[in-house]
Task: inverse folding
């Protein structure tokens, strides 16, 4: 009977997804399931980033279109667009991304801090895997960001 390698035990699984031409990674244990966008029953919303609610396996959940939040232009409607169903500490929700690519195993020491990103607490760091640079995100922190109202002026 073999004993597990302690170095391998440190590695965590991360789901890699594409968004706006960049590769991101989030902890796989936050992922409940992957679904194609077209397979979900959707109800529209007037929100910019919150694109409505969906029903998946009888559960109603909000859906956030990360292509709008991170992209420079409105997303194209593509039948191959993926929805990552997340099980967060506060709720279950869907996250629309350009596509899911793979799952990678990362050790904490592989993830390097991002220079100048101290004020952005949802960015965990950068890692290079097979020649690709992945931006590692803390999905709980990212999804807890509140939309800031810009343009409101104070009276002098």
Result:
């Amino acid at each position: 009977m073999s004993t597990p390698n302690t170095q391998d035990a440190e590695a965590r699984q991360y789901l890699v997804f594409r968004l706006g031409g960049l590769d991101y990674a989030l902890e796989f244990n936050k992922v409940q399931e992957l679904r194609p966008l077209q397979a979900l029953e959707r109800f529209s919303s007037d929100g910019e980033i919150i694109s409505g609610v969906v029903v998946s396996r009888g559960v109603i959940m909000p859906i956030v279109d990360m292509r709008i939040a991170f992209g420079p232009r409105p997303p194209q409607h593509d039948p191959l667009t993926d929805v990552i169903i997340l099980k967060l500490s506060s709720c279950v929700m869907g996250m629309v991304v350009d596509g899911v690519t793979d799952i990678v195993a990362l050790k904490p020491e592989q993830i390097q801090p991002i220079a100048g990103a101290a004020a952005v607490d949802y960015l965990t760091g950068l890692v290079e895997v097979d020649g690709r640079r992945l931006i590692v995100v803390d999905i709980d922190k990212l999804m807890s960001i509140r939309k800031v109202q810009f343009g409101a002026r104070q009276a002098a």
